[in-house]
């Protein structure tokens, strides 16, 4: 069993004044799926005792803000939790962010198995922060000129949202967005970075003489304490296929520090999904697994692994630069408004597909990309990752069906793409499509955490093997007369980067 006791807290029960000096006890059996028991007492008198069916951090500015009747008693405090029971809703005010997270982490996994605190594997989270602690990974993002310059333009073009304002940078990384905020006139920037990249960010800030403007806080967003609310929140929480790495949940969670009427940069994103036809990609993926169709590989029969290999390769979304010519029909879209949405809206995402073919096609899967909008008081700036736009480090993503659909002109393709969060900081993807006349069906099951990066081009071997290259035999030569490699032909970088 789990038992948790917190003392000298405060509680606001809906419709009643806030009670101070309240003791809290929470308990539940670890092998019992029923809600845990919460007991609130004051001076030996029991204020509440019963099961807790839900718990979350209060949203200070959005549509799910604590009810006005509960705000009237000095209520909205940073270290608070909104709890639901069968009988009422109440807010518990705790003494620190640590106590707040401790109680929330205890209640949420029992109250809702898909809750944020219960839905992430600790090892995956650790690897995530290790990855972004590397300077090379920060360079990859900084070197995306489209991304970096669009963020800077969005801030500089909206002085009303930055001049003399207090700004929070969520997942600050190297701190580049914090620098842009200061360039746009920010009075103070709190740069939140959980990884060890925070050490390098501090060094950059100090060497650029901005230590008095930018404060780096090395902690997870869920654990931070700020001395004040903020006017504007900036972040780059976008992953491949928009939602990979699940940072958007933390970005939405950051609204509890946002003043009413404050702005978020980006303000919203639109994700697009389109049918595509690319027989070459399908055959390429099938060919990868055909290696295991070998019955005699140095005396070993590999064929028993062919089915598993095929399953694995088709479970990999392809991250690449997509040729718009392969897209079929009109994309469907879904808007994610970070100013108003709940983070729970990101837990289970669906796109309904219903496309009538203008010509006969072989449908091999679904392609995806996104646009991010920075909606300020002075200007609106768009960052697009569409196939027709300038290339970014997000590229586009294609998800293959296990079997192509042969669709006639005038026939409809109907189905759904569904994305559900998983515990490894990503999403499981399920596709199901069918044709309206022939009745063909096809599915796809993929894991966004394990993509195939397809933008590398095969390189041609030039010259002799190493041993021959360095051989002293004049008949073989020493390699000096070999033609130089054609680096331009084998380059893996688009000229735009």
Q: Would you summarize the structure shown here?
A:
This protein is α+β, with helices and mostly antiparallel strands and 497 residues long. The protein has 12 helices and 22 strands. Helix 9 (279-290) packs antiparallel against helix 10 (306-314).
Summarize this structure as a short list of keywords or feature phrases:
497 residues, 7-stranded mixed β-sheet, 6-stranded antiparallel beta barrel, 12 helices, disordered C terminus
Q: Indicate the mean pLDDT.
A: 85
Strand content: 25-35%
Protein structure class: alpha+beta
- Number of helices, where a helix is a run of at least 4 consecutive DSSP H or I residues: 12
For the terminal residues, how far apart are their CA atoms? 55 Å
Estimate the helix proportion, in percent.
10-25%
Largest sheet: 7 strands, mixed
Shape estimate: globular
User: In angstroms, what is the radius of gyration?
Assistant: 27 Å
Query: Would you identify the regions where 5 or more consecutive residues have pLDDT less than 50?
Result: 60-75, 110-117, 457-462, 476-497
The total count of strands amounts to 22
Oligomer: single chain
Please explain how this structure is put together:
The structure is a single chain. The longest helix is centred in the N-terminal third of the chain and has 15 residues, at 97-111. Helix 5 (145-156) packs parallel to helix 6 and helix 9 (279-290) runs antiparallel to helix 10. By secondary structure, this protein is α+β, with helices and mostly antiparallel strands. Helix 7 links the parallel strand 8 (188-192) and strand 9 (214-217). Strands 12, 13, 14, 16, 17, 18 and 22 form a 7-stranded mixed β-sheet that branches. A 6-stranded antiparallel β-barrel has the order 1-2-3-4-5-6. It has a 5-stranded parallel β-sheet with strand order 9-8-7-10-11. The protein has 12 helices and 22 strands. The model is unreliable at 60-75, 110-117, 457-462 and 476-497 (pLDDT under 50). The termini are far apart. It has helices at residues 68-71, 97-111, 122-131, 135-142, 145-156, 176-183, 197-207, 247-253, 279-290, 306-314, 466-469, 487-490, and strands at residues 2-13, 19-28, 37-42, 45-56, 80-85, 89-93, 166-170, 188-192, 214-217, 230-235, 258-265, 268-276, 318-320, 327-337, 348-356, 361-375, 380-384, 396-407, 412-421, 427-435, 441-447, 452-453.
């Amino acid at each position: 069993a789990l038992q948790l006791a917190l003392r000298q807290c405060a509680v606001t029960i809906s419709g009643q004044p806030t009670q101070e000096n309240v003791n809290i006890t929470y308990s539940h059996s670890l092998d019992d799926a029923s809600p845990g028991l919460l007991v609130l007492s004051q001076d030996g008198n029991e204020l509440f005792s019963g099961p807790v069916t839900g718990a979350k951090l209060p949203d200070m500015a959005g549509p799910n803000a604590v009810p006005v009747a509960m705000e009237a008693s000095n209520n909205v405090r940073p270290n608070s939790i909104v709890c639901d029971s069968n009988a009422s809703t109440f807010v518990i005010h705790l003494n620190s962010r640590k106590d707040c997270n401790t109680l929330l982490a205890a209640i949420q996994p029992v109250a809702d198995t898909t809750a944020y605190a219960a839905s992430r594997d600790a090892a995956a989270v650790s690897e995530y922060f290790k990855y972004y602690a590397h300077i090379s990974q920060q360079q990859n993002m900084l070197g995306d000129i489209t991304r970096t310059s669009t963020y800077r333009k969005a801030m500089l073009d909206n002085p009303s949202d930055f001049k003399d304002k207090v700004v929070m940078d969520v997942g600050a990384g190297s701190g580049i967005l914090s620098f842009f905020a200061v360039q746009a006139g920010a009075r103070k920037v709190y740069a939140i970075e959980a990884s060890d990249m925070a050490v390098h960010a501090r060094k950059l800030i100090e060497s650029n003489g901005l230590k008095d403007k930018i404060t780096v806080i090395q902690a997870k967003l869920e654990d931070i304490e700020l001395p004040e609310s903020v006017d504007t929140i900036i972040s780059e929480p976008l992953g491949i296929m928009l939602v990979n790495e699940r940072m958007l949940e933390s970005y939405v969670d950051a609204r509890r520090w946002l003043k009413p009427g404050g702005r978020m940069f980006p303000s919203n994103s639109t994700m697009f999904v389109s049918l595509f036809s690319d027989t070459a990609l399908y055959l390429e993926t099938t060919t990868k697994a055909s290696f295991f169709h070998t019955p005699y590989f140095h005396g070993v029969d590999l064929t028993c692994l062919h089915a598993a290999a095929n399953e694995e390769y088709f479970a990999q979304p392809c991250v690449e630069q997509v040729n718009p010519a392969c897209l079929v029909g009109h994309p469907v879209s879904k808007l994610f408004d970070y100013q108003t949405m709940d983070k729970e809206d990101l837990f289970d995402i669906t796109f309904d597909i219903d496309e009538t073919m203008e010509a006969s096609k072989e449908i091999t899967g679904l392609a995806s990309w996104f646009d991010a909008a920075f909606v300020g008081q002075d200007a609106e700036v768009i960052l697009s990752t569409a196939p027709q736009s300038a290339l970014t480090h997000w590229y586009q993503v294609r998800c293959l069906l296990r079997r192509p659909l042969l669709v006639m002109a005038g026939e409809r393709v109907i189905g759904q793409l569904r994305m559900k969060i998983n515990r490894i900081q990503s999403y499981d993807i399920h596709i199901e499509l069918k044709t309206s006349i022939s009745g063909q069906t096809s599915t796809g099951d993929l894991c966004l955490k394990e993509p195939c990066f397809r933008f590398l081009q095969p390189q041609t071997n030039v010259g002799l093997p190493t041993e021959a290259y360095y051989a002293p035999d004049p008949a073989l030569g020493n390699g000096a007369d070999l033609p130089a490699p054609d680096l331009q032909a084998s380059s893996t970088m688009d000229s735009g980067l």
